[in-house]
Amino acid sequence: MASHFVRPNIRAMHGYTPGEQPGTGDRVVKLNTNENPFPPSPKVMQAIRDIAPESLRRYPNPTADGFREVAASVLDIPQDMILAGNGSDDILTIATRTFVPPGGTLAYPDPTYSLYKVLANIEDAKVSPVHWKEGWQLPVDALLATKADAIYLANPNAPSGTFVTPDVVSELAEQFEGLLLIDEAYADFAEDNCLALASKYDNVVVSRTFSKAYSLAGMRFGYAVAKSAVISQMMKVKDSYNCDAISVIAATAAMQDQDYAQMTWNHVKQDRARVAEELTKLGFEVLPSQTNFVFAKVPGGDGLGMYKSLKELGILVRHFDTGTLKPYLRITIGTGQENNALLGGIRELLAKEKAA
Amino acid sequence: MASHFVRPNIRAMHGYTPGEQPGTGDRVVKLNTNENPFPPSPKVMQAIRDIAPESLRRYPNPTADGFREVAASVLDIPQDMILAGNGSDDILTIATRTFVPPGGTLAYPDPTYSLYKVLANIEDAKVSPVHWKEGWQLPVDALLATKADAIYLANPNAPSGTFVTPDVVSELAEQFEGLLLIDEAYADFAEDNCLALASKYDNVVVSRTFSKAYSLAGMRFGYAVAKSAVISQMMKVKDSYNCDAISVIAATAAMQDQDYAQMTWNHVKQDRARVAEELTKLGFEVLPSQTNFVFAKVPGGDGLGMYKSLKELGILVRHFDTGTLKPYLRITIGTGQENNALLGGIRELLAKEKAA
Prior knowledge:
Two copies of one chain form a homodimer.
Chain A: H1 8-12, E1 29-30, H2 42-49, H3 53-57, H4 65-75, E2 82-85, H5 88-99, E3 105-110, H6 115-122, E4 126-131, H7 140-145, E5 150-154, H8 166-175, E6 179-183, H9 195-200, E7 204-209, E8 222-225, H10 228-237, H11 245-256, H12 258-281, E9 285-286, E10 293-297, H13 303-312, E11 315-316, E12 328-332, H14 336-355
Parallel strand pairs in A: 1-11, 3-4, 3-5, 5-6, 6-7
Antiparallel strand pairs in A: 2-8, 7-8, 9-10, 10-12
Helix pairs in contact in A: 2-11, 4-11, 5-10
């Protein structure tokens, strides 16, 4: 098969591997891709049912202004500091194409969201992964030393669930000459966030998603916040109509229903504490989480084994079969019932192990 | 404003300029962005109303397999020859990132869809626009002489509406060493198409959209057809979840309702003949169209003037204020009533001109 017409960097690279997505009909306790356990707000579902055929027949507003107006009001920032995207993956893609030149360098604390490396590969750029300092602390000096074109910081981080405080991130933004993207996919489950840095620094982009906090992973909607001069450069790079009419209406309705969203966040945070406590009792080492998942070291360290055994019980969690992550499982906080099923399954497996 | 962290090619370029999109409430006869005049199939609207909250809460199938299965059956090709995209703009973006290296060259017959140049600019690649031969014939030899990495051919072409027959496109595919993308956004309004070339040649990608033929411009859905080895390279480049759950369900329902779609195409083709005939009677030179629009030279040649005068009458058409396109208007075929409003408006303007 001739493929000389495919760019060599694309031929050589591996694509991103999404988490397993069983069919919605499959009977599985699905705690592997960090969805919100609650359905979207009833107001979102109503807005979707009310959509007019005319909104689908016509091209959408190219910059999703209906959403930007509401988001500007909720976040208390000017509308021209907001860029809407087809999921925050789209925001990350747009950022990489805007700020990371071919042959340039993308740096990030490592381990983190594995998509960053893929995005750099597609751009034919190099990556500089920099190990987190002891206790998942931000390696500010080592990141600066990379002289990268851009640094991507997932905060809270995945898969660790850990958080870097805004004052430490500020230090990095202040001293860094390139573009600092703060990926806040999980920020709504954290005790603080870095949104204010986007107003303070010229070189900061904050990205957000509706996939987790607003129960809309299937809808694909995210946004970036940065100074308007930065947003206007990113606008040139995005697809002309990157957000469809329904996703804009759904995200807008979700953003307007803050009470509902916060109810779901409160539930997740409460049950996160409970799951962490129970797992600790069972001999797991659980990292302090500011997300809607916990990252926990399996007693005995056989992460892959426990992942497989749980899967046999119909409980799906995420395992990363690489380096220092191998002894861990990343477990999404589900409904109370799902979390109980998880804990029950783990107790069963540990009891069996003990008996053997 | 510091912007040294923005890539120089992005700083230097202009973004794509979408056609004007007045609010859906505005009372305007909107014949400027080639939407289908009919609403989406009632079955599409029903499928959207029936969407389950669970489909939105969870991540979608990453490769839109529900759609690919139906499309494979309707088009009579294997499923692994299909890649789904967030509009055909997403397909064009993915193709450019897969096949056009930074510093490489993208060629296309010119004038054509102005997005191609923007996509090359973002990639920091050069463009080789090659003038159409007399009568909008494909300049095969001149295109080959560019030695480009890729050639993008809109067929039927926009804004001319003209069509190159598959045997001539075959000649180009056969002799070209790079990747030939055939952008068939308007193919459903044409007498033939080049889908078979995607099965015949290793280096051909055909792209399609639901924006025009299926009345779903607001929904953002398109797809590519190519040999599976080519599709699997493009899969690495697309965003992980580029198509949202609702767009997949909507596009699948639209694809399944071929009777409805063909009814809309037949109406458009009939009224296209009528509008072309009437415009010709009024002194326009109308190019032979195989699309859902006509490209017509205004009597006297003041395209901009007539565009503005029509806009004052509440009739929006598209004018391109560049080079040889200046004397022309691109006019979408609307409902019978809209087309009558257009013709009435033009008659009124020409009568006024004559009286002055």
